[in-house]
Amino acid sequence: VETGKCKIYEHRPLGCRLYPLIYDADNEEVLVDKYCPKSEEVKCTITQVQCELVKKVADNVLRKELVKVR
């Protein structure tokens, strides 16, 4: 990672593109990861569309995990 970017940066998954937005499954809400250095800037620009996308990504991941368990 010579450029400071992920090797697949241009083709990264949707979950990575939406970071630092994360889904808190315990409280069923979308949050800004408090460990992100830019979290304060991001909090001001979150849109409803972004929140819905984060929820979809989380739902898809959870469904895939459930299938693995079965």
Automatic annotation (TrEMBL):
<protein>
    <submittedName>
        <fullName>YkgJ family cysteine cluster protein</fullName>
    </submittedName>
</protein>
<dbReference type="InterPro" id="IPR005358">
    <property type="entry name" value="Puta_zinc/iron-chelating_dom"/>
</dbReference>
<dbReference type="Pfam" id="PF03692">
    <property type="entry name" value="CxxCxxCC"/>
</dbReference>
